[in-house]
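Z., the sequence and structure:
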Amino acid sequence: MPASIYSIPVEKITGEPASLTDFRAHVLLVVNVASKCGLTPQYQGLEKLYEKYRGQGLVIAGFPANDFRAQEPGTNEEIQSFCTLNYGVTFPPLQQNHRRWPRKAPALRRIDCRPTQRRRRRRSAVP
């Protein structure tokens, strides 16, 4: 059986080593985020959700990724500054990670329910 997500090391956006074990007793919401996409306003909604429920144990783990149309091109420092200044984000963003295979971050691999390789669709021979 694969390792628990809590046993996989991650890094804080500041570069410090971390572990999701710190949040084991909490409700953990893992979110793929980007600062320059049509869904960027999600930061505001996520922060409201975090403010409302963090006292009850909610933790939002934001995984920034630049794998989709270069929508998270900044450094970790720029990402953190953007999120704080524009959306008042206080939930713990993690270091920028890859979201696509084969370079996908280990924690994201663990929670992804898809197979590790894409299957090619077979075309049926229809007469």
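Strands lie at 9-11, 17-19, 27-33, 58-64. The first helix runs from residue 42 to 53.

Let me know what you think.
H.
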